[in-house]
């Protein structure tokens, strides 16, 4: 996979778990200053200060951001807290202004990640700058769009990259403002080795309560930091009022989180090594059994070919699915897991047998 620089190598003195905090939107110099002072007073200075300067609003008529003036106020943050700053850019003009004002880290918002044209324009505007870029997941749960936006940045030579997991919109499930779909950030980490993912519980939950729970889950899953919207007077914030927390509440949330030690950072102890060896051994057995199972599947395929039988037989499939799912559930394996496992094994079996038929068919072969 592509090589990129992790957060600790961005040259900004950042470490993981990376804590990013600041308001949804920059509103006034007084607001920015008050947030900084309250952070200091609550003894909760984040590593990176966030502020929305241009706000991509779903519908017109709400506050759409203060614009370039807000970038000038970032000096207030440097003065009081002496920490780097990150803002969202949604087009090439924003990207150019952010660079002009010395923004330390740029992020691409969820509504922009869905649009490869906009992402490409931003990448072109940032070419040659070496600025770190964080890409939020797209609104819809499409891993390729998320990866694609990171790849577009990488392709213009920007190699200081990270991802932000802010959840996915869902027409039906209203428990969250944006449903977390935890398998997405985890899959991103699987397919792009070393890609760090910062969780944004504020936009996932959409309310103040629940931010701690989602943050803890993110840390449990092994995500690499948190971006939490923080405002001195959340109820009167100009955007996302319901989900912002005060600096004091931020400190309480961060104190309550049990930050796990990333396994990569420590030498696994004896017990963990023993357990991992046991898993390695069981996985070997699992693979032997699968190999044996597919050998039998191939013999069945041969038999079907000789007797001119179709590969897929729905009654048999139904019976296999139901009986194995029941057996699995009796062994404390979830129904969802059993179904996914059986679908996957069955799909592979059907493909192998269909290939056998195709390869022996003189018409197709020719
Ligand atoms: C934000 O961070 O304020 C924001 C607009 O987020 P998203 O792109 O995740 O909606
Ligand atoms: Mn917001």
Automatic annotation (TrEMBL):
It comes from Algoriphagus limi. Transmembrane segments: none annotated. The keyword Metal-binding does not apply. The lineage of its organism: Bacteria, Pseudomonadati, Bacteroidota, Cytophagia, Cytophagales. It holds the Pfam family DAHP_synth_1. SMART domains: CM_2. It is an enzyme of class 5 (isomerase). Keywords: Transferase. Residues 266-357 form the Chorismate mutase domain. This is chorismate mutase. Its EC number is 5.4.99.5. It comes from the Bacteria.
């Amino acid at each position: 996979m592509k090589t990129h620089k992790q957060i600790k190598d961005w040259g900004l003195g950042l470490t993981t778990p990376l804590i990013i905090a600041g308001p949804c939107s920059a509103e006034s110099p007084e607001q920015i200053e008050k947030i900084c002072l309250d952070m200091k007073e609550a003894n909760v200075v984040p590593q990176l200060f966030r502020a929305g300067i241009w706000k991509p609003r779903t519908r017109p008529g709400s506050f759409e951001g203060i614009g370039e003036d807000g970038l000038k106020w970032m000096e207030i943050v440097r003065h009081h807290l002496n920490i780097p700053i990150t803002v969202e850019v949604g087009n090439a003009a924003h990207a150019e202004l952010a660079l002009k004002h010395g923004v330390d880290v740029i992020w691409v918002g969820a509504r922009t990640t869905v649009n490869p044209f906009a992402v490409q324009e931003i990448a072109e505007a940032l070419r040659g700058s070496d600025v770190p870029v964080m890409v939020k997941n797209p609104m819809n749960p499409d891993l390729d769009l998320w990866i694609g936006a990171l790849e577009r940045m990488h392709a213009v030579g920007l190699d200081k990259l990270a991802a932000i997991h802010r959840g996915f919109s869902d027409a039906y499930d209203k428990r969250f403002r944006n449903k977390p779909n935890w398998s997405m950030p985890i899959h991103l980490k699987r397919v792009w080795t070393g890609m760090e993912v910062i969780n944004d519980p504020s936009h996932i939950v959409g309310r103040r309560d629940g931010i701690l729970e989602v943050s803890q889950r993110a840390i449990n899953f092994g995500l690499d930091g948190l971006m939490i919207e923080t405002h001195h007077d959340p109820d009167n914030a100009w955007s996302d009022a319901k989900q912002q927390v005060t600096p004091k509440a931020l400190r309480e949330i961060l104190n309550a989180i049990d930050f796990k030690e990333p396994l990569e950072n420590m030498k696994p102890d004896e017990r963990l090594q023993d357990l991992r060896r046991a898993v390695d051994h069981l996985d070997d057995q699992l693979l032997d059994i699968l190999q044996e199972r597919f050998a039998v599947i191939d013999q069945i395929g041969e038999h079907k070919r000789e007797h001119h039988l179709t590969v897929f037989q729905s009654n048999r499939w139904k019976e296999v699915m139901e009986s194995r799912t029941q057996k699995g559930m009796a062994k404390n394996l979830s129904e969802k897991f059993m179904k996914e496992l059986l679908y996957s094994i069955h799909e592979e079996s059907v493909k192998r047998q269909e290939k056998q038929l195709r390869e022996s068919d003189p018409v197709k072969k020719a």
